[in-house]
Amino acid sequence: MSLSDAVSSRVFKYKCLQCGKLYISAGGLHHHKIWHTGKKPYKCNNCERCFSNISDLKKHQKTHSGEKPFKCTHCDKCFAHAYSLKSHHRIHTGEKPYTCADCGMHFRQAEVLLRHKRTHTGERPHKCNVCGKCFAQLATLRRHELTHRDEKPIACNECGRRFKRAGNLKQHRKRHTSKQGYKCIECGIHILHLIDFQLHKKVHW
Q1: Distance between CA 24 and CA 45 in Å, rounded?
Q2: Average pLDDT of 23-44?
Q3: 3-state secondary structure 19-82
Q4: Fewest CB within a 10 Å sphere: which of 161, 162, 167, 192?
Q5: What is the CATH number that goes with domain 1-65?
Q6: Each residue's pLDDT tens digit, 146-180
Q7: What integer pLDDT is reported at residue 2 of this predicted model?
Q8: In the chain, where are the structural domains located?
């Protein structure tokens, strides 16, 4: 383990088991876990955007006020947060304190190193809820999710009906295990609705 990895493991002690993201405090990890549930209980009073944790809301609210109190002494660029200034400052100093133990590449930010490590491990912690495809980067998943907005990529292999989400297909398939509806004389399954039954019959053509 390199020195930077050892430092990171001491500083970022709390790891999300779902995506591998690291946090300094248990509270930070707790708020992050809310993001995985999809709940966004914190609402901005200015534009009504919602956020999964209070810190993201506070960061967002500064975009309305335009407040950027942290000024770079090298280029006069200003930032809303101290950590953003610290990260930016490394552009001027050339400092890259985080080193990859696998290939020796250096990074300015711990989170960038964490993402980079996935190129070695093949880890893809970000899963699409629609089709189940997994991605190494959250931004890549977000771009991928846009492709599902108006499509129904998941088909029922019994009747051909299509769904946006795997969960919807799972609920739908319960209908085929019941004894209600229309029975297919070819394969013996039951289909609740006539339109689905007519689609299913085409499977045997």
Answers
A1: 29
A2: 79
A3: CCCEECCHHHHHHHHHHHHCCCCEECCCCCCEECCHHHHHHHHHHHHCCCCEECCCCCCEECCH
A4: 167
A5: 3.30.160.60
A6: 777 766 777 777 777 777 777 777 777 776 666 66
A7: 47
A8: 1-65, 154-204
